[in-house]
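Hi V.,

You were right to ask for the full record rather than a summary. Here it is.
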Amino acid sequence: MAEDVKKNVEEMDWDSGISAEVEERNLPPVGEYGFTVDEFEKTLSKSGKKMAKITIKLDKEGQFWRINDYLVLTANMEWKLAQFFECLSLKKKGEPLTSMPWNQVLGASGRVKIKHEVYEGKESCKVDRYLVSDAAKAPTAPANDIKAPEAGDVPFEV
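Predicted structure:
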């Protein structure tokens, strides 16, 4: 595996040759991954709607993949936008977000579920959903659970 990693990062020159047999890059297996937002671009969709092009870097046991996801800013995609910001801990679940914090997404990390799709005979990798960690969803323990010491519990003389 170390040889594969070295082979993949070996720098080529502008006029380097290309081998006769080049393996296609493998898709990451379907599943859940930790990710970091590697690139972010404000752009327009084919239909002219505002869209965020997000490039995430997946990491699983030292193996890395880069995947593009497209978040179109329309009301029917609000669920995915909410998932994205909740996943990055930039929005609290169940609370409104007054303004989407795009300036904070680059370099942010979270978890994602990846699926495979076939389009025009070619298999590709897609973001199925952004995952909110259980720790982010778990309520904090109320402060009144702490008992005050009773007489005789103090470890020193008063």
